[in-house]
Predict the 3D structure of the following.
Amino acid sequence: MATIRGHCVAALLCTLALGTGCATGSKEAAGPQPKYQDTRTTVATATVTALDLGTRMVTIRSADGESYTFRASDEVRNLGQVRVGDQVKVEYTESIVVDVRKSDGTAPDAAVVTSVDRAPAGAKPAGVVGQSTTVSAAIVAIDRSTNRVTLKGPSGNLRVLQVKDPKKLEDVAVGDIVYVTYTEALAISVEELK
């Protein structure tokens, strides 16, 4: 995941969370700040149909009958535990959280955290790779007549967003900070066919 992608996602998420629209001026928030979150997971399975430990070549067949052959890299631990007939499960999850909060004095920022985990030695091959990108932007202007909000990002860049639901702006004020966190995780595991 690139930082640029995170910034694009941040703009999209701000649009979703705020619902495009704002008014100039500032006010103290009377109610809860807008928040949006969504998570989607896709799961696919395939069956190991051929395996050559010497060359590390693996052939799998997907549920729709398609066959794929690839070389398992040296990073794949425990390849010797895999048997023909084992099931390979791939699970991809992405989530987004957009949260508007009162400023605590911190400047808009962007951060990326990556994590990698894999099965211990002797177990069936498995691993999870994840990345989380968090971008924050300050609300510098709200135009309630046109339902537009202006955000100032970590690089000082300004972006005007159209808010779809003006009610989401009722408790939003100039100076509030919009936090967008986009997370992706890919988990792969090999399981014996029961």
The chain has one domain: 3-41+90-191. The first helix runs from residue 3 to 18. The chain is about 10% helix and 50% strand. Strands lie at 35-52, 57-62, 67-71, 87-101, 110-118, 126-143, 148-152, 158-162, 177-191.
